[in-house]
Specification:
The complex is a heterodimer of chains A (779) and B (91). With 779 residues, chain A is an alpha+beta fold. Helix content of chain A is 27%, strand content 25%. In chain A, the strands form seven sheets. Chain A has a seven-stranded mixed beta sheet, sandwiched between helices. Chain B has helices at residues 27-37, 41-45; strands at residues 2-5, 19-22, 46-47, 50-51, 55-59, 62-63, 77-82.
Chain lengths: 779, 91
């Protein structure tokens, strides 16, 4: 547990009473006693159970679907296929953090003409029990024309590759191309004379890297319960990070008016970005419409892995040139990311984050969004940045090693600061890169001896890497109602995936001068709160918290008016301080919220404060550093993490324990990404490890306690200085682990995961190269 | 005049220049001014009177919220950055 280290020169010197403390979360007791209601806990009278028939083929045309036998099974009440969905126009539209194409979304929910990955949904059945529904799936007859699958970006980008979407043209090419392609889009950033810059470098390192497709690994599978009333009004209970997105997407692809869909967000058992889109919700609505009864659908673990949204595998080339004193003078990078079956990988974010921690004048970065016959990728905690950081940080580390410069010192020499142009062009605002590096170098971990193992087969190494994430702003709404007893009911529209209902309650408590347990936070459905964008992009405590802050100002203004009415003075003569209404003059006893709360009805009625924000201009980007010690068994290739410290700029830690939790959680996921996790497909495109036994995520026994150091470089765009904290900690671990292994073994592995078989092969190849070198030297 | 940085793929329209200084009080006005000098630029970033969904704009480091009506200052720096998250098939 660490106390946040605040960097002076920040936005505010305010002394907080609630912010910075560690209260027990409001939802804690329900969560640990099992009373919290998750999506799969929802049960309605007459409810049916839905199951999905999924393609066994990675790439095939659907020649026909016959549901006759399935419909005849007793207990089956409705079946839907792609033919039951309305046609949807292909267009790109803004949605949350990025863009979507509703036609692709519809085709992913239920395949129409083609199946594009093994697991792609073809039909859905509603029956009186999940077992009957499962039985009915086997009675649906589908005829396919199997097509050759394309499973990796390099194959997909070849001129002779099978084409997934004959009408897909590469966006971003100039001049435009009319050739069908698996490359959905290209992004490119370029500035300066690259050839001249590389020519001026004393050392140039160019490497290529591959990263595997990985999954967010949330414990709670996707679920949805839908009912459709006789008037056509649909209500959907769902585990989601974005109830307003669910409403919008369902409206678009089902051609239903927005006002006819109400989405109720249930408690959520993890999302990490994977629950920012839709899978089961439209199917549950369609089945409910067709059967006239509520329908519940819950994915199995295998379905989650096969058919929800993992994040992209990638192929990345990075070339950096540096002068002898460690200054990086040139950068050239190419990134190709798997989008999965439909366009929309986070390659644009990867390209923008790859070198964002650094001040590099001359660069060229090109990113390709490539469709392959795998599930459509979805966001995963700083989407796109971990892949890119692994590649860039590996090369930065190699340059440091070649030049004999301390890896943190080299990063400091090239560190971005306020005003530094980002790779995409816009200049950094105030950013904590240097402060994170300083904290890393001053940490007990950095100063500690690495130690050695008593086992001669085990080697230790230490690695360090940094990462960057933008953090999103977007839109949020909040209301605060003052109750007669002076407590506050806080309503927001942000599903709580990391303790944000409490961080938002803390902001309200701070502003209203009351204890946090006198604020009752709730997360409302889409009919009960103003539009609120997705819980994602590390935005909720910053942006929804900003709406809460503004709503509290509205409350205070109204309370001043009510006190003035009671005291028969002007509202300008009343101030709000330390939770009390105070008259500037006269003999008026200050009023607490509890005292005034009971008098609101006779001063004009209830007091409800409201606010909406578009927080795009309030965001503060985040930097994190990961310091890791590993122990490598050179006989088995197994890597143990023996010590790990994450250093992160939080701006202002509202609830330090939850900030630390985010830092540790992101780091644990990054370590799994580095060492073990990968989708394993056979040549036909069938996922071979569709379960947690074989899709190996780290568990508590695999990792040491992850130490945390919170750095606070206040975000000038926010009244408290808050920066988003949820994502950036997942970015540096793969690069740090790769560097630690290189330090331990002398071998740098340019691929993730650095699993035992891959590391052993690299070690043996390294031995063969070393032996060949020795033999050559001896001749 | 505001400085507008031209995205790399569109520099073929601006004779290779990576930035253009143009007058204008809004993002839309700047785009029109660039298009007057380098015909075809507007069509690459605007459709149906709005910025393309795949295009985001930063003015002085802040992502804009008012689209083409976003005000700019005489010394503003304007960047076009991707808002890409999905592609459109022209069916």
């Amino acid at each position: 547990m660490s106390d946040p280290k605040t960097s002076n020169g920040g936005a505010t010197e305010r002394r907080f009473k609630v912010v910075g403390t560690r209260p027990i979360r409001h939802d804690g007791i329900d969560k640990v006693t099992g009373r919290a209601r998750y999506g799969a806990d929802v049960t309605l009278p007459g409810m049916l159970h839905g199951k999905v028939l999924r393609s066994p083929h990675a790439h095939a045309r659907i020649l026909g679907i016959d549901v006759t036998r399935a419909l005849a099974l007793p207990g089956v009440k409705a079946i839907v296929t792609g033919a039951d969905m309305p046609p949807v126009k292909s267009k790109t539209e803004q949605s949350g953090e990025g863009t979507t194409n509703p036609r692709h979304l519809s085709d992913n929910v239920l395949a129409k003409e083609k199946v594009l990955y093994s697991g792609h949904a073809i039909a859905a059945v509603a029956a009186t029990s999940p077992h009957v529904a499962e039985e009915a799936l086997a009675l649906i007859d589908v005829r396919y024309e199997v097509l050759p699958p394309v499973l990796d970006v390099r194959t997909a980008m070849r001129d002779d590759a099978p084409i997934l979407h004959p009408d897909l043209r590469t966006h971003g090419l100039e001049p435009k191309s009319d050739r069908p392609s698996n490359v959905a889009s290209v992004v490119r950033f370029e500035r300066g004379d690259l050839d001249a810059a590389f020519a001026s470098a004393d050392v140039v390192v160019e490497r290529e890297f591959d990263t595997a497709m990985v999954h967010q690994g949330y414990i709670e599978p996707h679920n949805a319960v839908a009912k459709v009333d006789a008037d056509g009004q649909a209500t959907v209970w769902v585990s989601t990070q974005g109830p307003f997105e669910v409403r919008h997407f369902c409206s678009e692809i089902l051609a239903m008016p927005l006002s006819q869909i109400k989405v109720v967000p249930a408690e959520i058992g993890g999302g990490f970005g994977g629950k920012t889109t839709i899978y089961l919700e439209p199917l549950a609505i369609l089945l409910a419409q067709k059967s006239g009864r509520p329908v519940k659908m819950v994915m199995s673990r295998a379905e989650v892995l096969r058919a929800s949204g993992p994040t992209s595998g990638s192929h990345i080339r990075v070339k950096l040139g540096a002068t002898r004193d460690g200054r990086i003078v040139a950068a050239d990078a190419t990134l190709a990311y798997e989008a999965g079956a439909f366009p929309g990988s986070p390659v644009w974010a990867g390209a923008m984050c790859l070198l964002a921690p650094y001040d590099i004048e001359t660069l060229r970065i090109e990113g390709f969004d490539v469709v392959v016959n795998r599930p459509k990728t979805a966001a995963y905690r700083a989407p796109g940045a971990s892949n890119a950081s692994f590649a860039a940080e590996s090369v930065v580390d190699e340059i440091a090693s070649r030049l004999g410069i301390d890896p943190i010192d080299l990063r400091r020499k090239n560190g971005a600061r306020e005003g530094t142009p980002t790779p995409a062009g816009p200049r950094h605002k105030r950013i904590g890169m240097l402060e994170v590096l300083d904290a890393a170098q001053a940490s007990p971990h950095w100063a500690a001896p690495l130690g050695t193992s008593s086992d001669p087969a085990k080697r230790r190494g230490r690695g360090f890497a940094v990462g960057f994430w933008f953090n999103a702003g977007l839109q949020s709404s909040a209301t605060i109602a003052i109750n007669p007893d002076g407590t506050a009911s806080l309503v927001t529209g942000s599903p709580d995936i990391g303790g944000t209902r409490t961080s938002c309650a803390m902001i309200a408590a701070e502003e209203l001068g009351i204890p946090v347990d006198r604020v009752r936070p709730s997360v409302a459905d889409t009919d009960s709160v103003g539009h609120t964008d997705v819980t994602g992009g590390s935005r909720v405590t910053m942006a929804t918290g900003l709406a809460v802050y503004e709503a509290a100002q509205d409350v205070k203004r109204q309370l001043c008016e009510r006190a003035a009415a009671l005291w028969k003075i002007r509202s300008e003569e009343v101030s709000f301080a330390d939770g009390k209404l105070v008259a500037a003059q006269g003999d008026h006893e200050p009023l607490t919220l509890a005292a005034l709360g009971g008098k609101l009805s006779r001063t004009g009625g209830p007091v409800v404060g409201r606010a909406t924000v578009n927080a795009q201009k309030a965001t503060g980007a985040a930097i994190a550093g990961t310091l890791v010690d590993v122990e490598v068994d050179v006989e088995t290739g197994k890597v143990d993490v023996v010590r790990c410290t994450v250093i992160q700029d939080a701006g202002r830690a509202i609830h330090p324990a939850y900030v630390e939790g985010q830092m540790q959680g992101g780091t644990a996921q990054g370590l799994g990404w580095a060492l073990n996790e990968e989708y394993v497909y056979d040549a036909d495109g069938t996922l071979l490890n569709a379960g947690f036994l074989d899709y190996r995520m780290p568990i508590a026994l695999d990792l040491p306690m992850i130490d945390t150091i919170i750095v606070e470089v206040p975000n000038p765009g926010h009244p408290y200085g808050v920066r988003g904290v949820g994502e950036v900690s997942i970015v540096p671990p793969p690069g740090a682990v790769a560097s630690a292994i290189a330090a331990a073994t002398g071998v740098r592995v340019p691929a993730l995961p650095i699993s035992p078989p891959r590391l052993l092969a690299a070690l043996h190849a390294g031995d063969r190269h070393a032996e060949a070198g020795r033999a050559a030297a001896a001749r | 005049m505001a400085t507008v940085f031209i995205p790399a793929p569109l520099r073929r329209l601006t004779a290779g220049h990576d930035r253009v200084d143009v007058p204008g009080a809004s993002v839309g006005a700047l785009i029109d001014a660039i298009d007057a000098l380098h015909v075809g630029f507007r069509a690459r970033v605007v459709a149906d009177g709005e910025l393309l969904p795949s295009v985001a704009v930063a003015v002085d480091g802040d992502m804009i919220t008012q689209g083409l009506d976003e005000p700019v200052h005489p010394d503003s720096e304007v960047h076009f950055v991707p808002a890409l998250g999905g592609g459109a098939s022209p069916r």
